[in-house]
Design a protein that fits this description.
The protein is α+β, with helices and mostly antiparallel strands and about 350 residues long. The protein has a domain of about 170 residues: Naphthalene 1,2-dioxygenase Alpha Subunit, Chain A, domain 1, CATH 3.90.380. The radius of gyration is 23 Å and the shape is globular. It is about 20% helix and about 30% strand. The chain starts with 13 loop residues before the first strand and ends with a strand. The chain binds FE2/S2 (inorganic) cluster. The site of FE2/S2 (inorganic) cluster has 8 residues, from loops. The site of FE2/S2 (inorganic) cluster (FES) has 8 residues, from loops. Belongs to the bacterial ring-hydroxylating dioxygenase alpha subunit family. Pfam families: Rieske, Ring_hydroxyl_A. GO terms for molecular function: 2 iron, 2 sulfur cluster binding; dioxygenase activity; iron ion binding; monooxygenase activity; oxidoreductase activity, acting on paired donors, with incorporation or reduction of molecular oxygen. This is Rieske domain-containing protein.
């Protein structure tokens, strides 16, 4: 039997009924191609979007190339130490300049006609320069640089030159959660080399929503839960947990860990031999931040959604997920691991050590 759901033309996509504590979303939100196209122009072309982490471009000349919000970009640390985000498109005839996902370069040469750009974006080399008219000036053809900024090592870009908010204003309450993550290292956090690239035939919003949906955890991840129990995980040392809105579409949840956190929360699953080291680290956190904040940093799991394309799962490991919609019914997901760093982070031209 076929059941056709009749919906009145123009019916709302979202019904948020605070009086009845009811929040309902029409499934067109996940399948409608016109809506997906409008999301790209009204959300991804306007918001601040996550690009990557400063530690992915640790030294002058290092770069990473990737798609963000449907556009090819590359993030490069110039020889001057400054991180910039460029359109990955030659200013001559638009060929892709950076074809490697990551590397080290003093300059970038376009493969089509060999125009060459410095790692600060300046056009520095043009074959047969006499072939251009007298008005041609290399200074007019530097790489297109997008507006970018970083907060606690997380680099964001906006494709809207008139985006009215600074990055910090845009992040709103999410800054508190990025602080809780970055404070886990005395020298800054680092992305561990290597990434998992996934594709899914599903709408991008499903991944974002799922990442803060803790309701599903024990039902869907039974095998993981029993595996952790077999390793000696213990019940949470405290109960509780909450979810919260952080403003401008961002949100988070916090839960006591059911397993352990390798940074500074020891449980038997790690083995007795590492207990002194982990507990010494925990004591240093109490010295630095006080008992209450140290417990929140090191003894609490959290998931943070930074609208529209960044999820951070901070539990027994820290996973950064960058989401890229591909129409209504597909998405690309890039996952990397974040961990306490081993080198002093440089931001712009200055070195910073968190003490
Ligand atoms: S398109 Fe890049 S040099 Fe021509």
């Amino acid at each position: 039997m076929t059941i056709e759901l009749q919906r009145p033309v123009g019916a709302p996509i979202v019904i948020d009924d605070l009086e009845r504590l009811s929040f309902r979303v029409d499934r067109r939100a996940y399948t409608d191609d016109d809506l997906a196209a409008r999301e790209m122009t009204r959300i991804f072309d306007r918001c601040w979007l996550y690009v990557g982490h400063e530690s992915e471009v640790p030294g002058p000349g290092s770069y990473v190339a990737r798609d963000v919000g449907g556009r090819p970009v590359f993030m490069a640390r110039g020889s001057d130490g400054v991180i910039r985000v460029f359109a990955n498109s030659c200013t001559h005839r638009g060929a892709l300049i950076c074809s490697q996902p990551a590397g080290q370069a003093r300059s970038f040469r376009c493969p089509y006609h060999d125009w060459t750009f410095s790692n600060q974006g300046d056009l520095v080399g043009v074959p047969i320069p006499d072939g251009y008219g007298p008005g041609f000036r290399k200074a007019d053809f530097g790489l297109a640089q997008h507006r970018s900024d970083s907060y606690r090592g997380f680099v964001f870009v906006t494709f809207d030159p008139e985006q009215p908010r600074t990055l910090t204003e845009y992040l709103a309450g999410a800054t508190e959660y990025l602080d809780l993550i970055d404070d886990q290292s005395e020298v800054g956090m680092e992305v561990i080399q290597g990434a998992q690239l996934h594709g899914a035939r599903a709408n991008w919003k499903l991944m974002m929503e799922n990442s803060v949906d803790i309701y599903h955890f024990r039902a869907l991840h039974k095998r993981y839960v029993s595996y952790m129990e077999s390793l000696g995980s213990v019940p949470p040392r405290r109960r509780g947990g909450f979810g919260c809105a952080l403003g401008l579409g961002h949100g988070a949840n916090e839960l006591p860990p059911a397993a352990a956190r390798p940074l500074a929360y020891w449980t038997p699953m790690f083995g007795a031999e590492v207990r002194p080291r982990i507990e010494a680290t925990a004591a240093r956190f109490v010295d630095r931040f006080g008992a209450e904040r140290a417990e929140r940093i090191t003894g609490t799991n959290r998931a943070v959604l930074i609208f529209p394309n960044l999820m951070i799962i901070d539990a027994i490991a820290i996973t950064i997920r960058k989401i890229d919609p591909i129409g209504a019914g597909q998405m690309a997901i890039t996952s990397v691991a974040l961990a306490p760093g081993t080198r002093i982070r440089t931001s712009g031209n200055s070195a910073r050590v968190t003490t």
